[in-house]
Amino acid sequence: MNRIAESEFILNQRGAVYHLNLRPEELAPTIITVGDPDRVGEVSKHFDQVEGKFQHREFVTHTGRIGQKRISVVSTGIGTDNIDIVLNELDALVNIDFDTRTVKSTHTPLTIVRVGTSGSLQADIPADSFVASTHGLGIDNLLNFYQQKNNPEESEIVGAFINHTKLGNNIASPYIASAGPSVLKHFVEGFHHGITVTCPGFYGPQGRVLRLGLFNTDWVDQLTSFQYGNHRITNFEMETSGIYGLGKLLGHHCLSLSAIVANRVNKQFSKDGAAAVEKLIIKTLEILSA
To answer: At what angle do helices 240-250 and 80-95 cross, to 10 degrees?
Structure first.
């Protein structure tokens, strides 16, 4: 087995993976990811026991237990550039031998569930409701740096999306990946399901106008009106496609859950987004710990 060089797989002085500052024994097999480092404590306060707390830069991890279920909650920061770091290092923690710097012969899958916020793109998905993403459709280009292959349905959805939006290669080459079905099946009641578009920014890429004009002034309407068979775009945010894409390539079971804090069709914003996120955290932990 080929040894991975120090410049490619970086460990710190305590033998922890560089960005996350975690050693293999400090990570649980079930992981909740949140964007905001301050939200890690909002999740772990519901643990029966916290085994350890770790931090490096914006990456904060709390590992503990609810009953007999061991769970880690990890902050990613915003965007798929950070997801590239987090997903690769989470995988390394279970599938690379830190002593020999070689890939383990036996693959270990993780369950990774994103709990975050998002904007709705459908009038019937109001603020303070929840979305479980069936697919992550990325216009951020991250997965285009990796070898990937879509199944026929995924390829057809991407083709229909490009044709519908007339999205030019000067902006993005869209890609798509699906949720892990073994996780998604537990998040049905109380959740809207649909495609989540992952954008490389919060303002222009999500159709917001402050002082700068947009390349495509109909962008939000184009996303809202897209449909392929029973699939429609329910919401957009900034991490899901990276989690689904890398998770699929690395052999992990991933799901993205969103508390809707804004409805971009009705121009509504949640009156208490923190309360909506708290409800989603509690619901997620109840399902995962069961």
So the answer is: 30
Q: CA–CA distance from 216 to each of 162, 167, 168, 204, 285 (Å)?
A: 14, 9, 11, 9, 40
- Positive/negative CA dihedral, 243, 247, 252, 254: positive
Q: What's the count of helices (H) and strands (E) in the chain, helices before strands?
A: 7, 14
Which pTM value belongs to this model? 0.97
- Rounded to an integer, what distance in angstroms lies between the CA atom of residue 177 and that of residue 243? 9
Strand partners of residue 53: 62
Which domains, ranges and CATH numbers included, belong to the chain? 24-289 (3.40.50.1580)
Closest CA to 24 of 75, 103, 93, 106: 93
Question: Along the 290 residues of the chain, how does pLDDT read in single tens digits?
Answer: 799 999 999 999 999 999 999 999 999 999 999 999 999 999 999 999 999 999 999 999 999 999 999 999 999 999 999 999 999 999 999 999 999 999 999 999 999 999 999 999 999 999 999 999 999 999 999 999 999 989 999 999 999 999 999 887 778 899 999 999 999 999 999 999 999 999 999 999 999 999 999 988 999 999 999 999 999 999 999 999 999 999 999 999 999 999 999 999 999 999 999 999 999 999 999 999 99
- Bridge partner list, 30: 71, 111
Could you give the 3-state DSSP secondary structure of residue 75? strand
Q: Which is nearest to 199 in space by CA: 158, 231, 167, 240? A: 240
